[in-house]
């Protein structure tokens, strides 16, 4: 049995058979304590048909034993392609959910291994990307990514 200290915010990392979790507790507006669980190697293509494998995911789980976890939707799109049909981004194995932070109703989740095609499609670089969610509004932030 593990007892966690009382804290306003905490991050816990657990490694188990190549499955890495990032946990962050949140207090949503209805005042139920929830935990955000980052699952960077989660394969969500069975829920949303996609060519992306092991996209990663973030779940909201009730602190108490009753209830079940629900996936928080950030991005379910396939890899972007340019106007010539060449693949520009590579979301498979991007480890989305490896970093999870929250404050109030803002949730930030990142994919540090997200890759983007650069220099005329001859290379792809792990530039990483993050999504900031507030309610139904979601904004992507990837400052190292070049334009299409």
TrEMBL record:
GO biological process: angiogenesis; cell adhesion mediated by integrin; cell-cell adhesion; cell-matrix adhesion; integrin-mediated signaling pathway
An annotated Gene Ontology molecular function: integrin binding
Intervals holding FG-GAP repeats: 81-142
Matches recorded under InterPro entries: Int_alpha_beta-p, Integrin_alpha_N
Cellular compartments per GO CC: external side of plasma membrane; integrin complex
Stated name of the protein: Uncharacterized protein
Species lineage: Eukaryota, Metazoa, Chordata, Craniata, Vertebrata
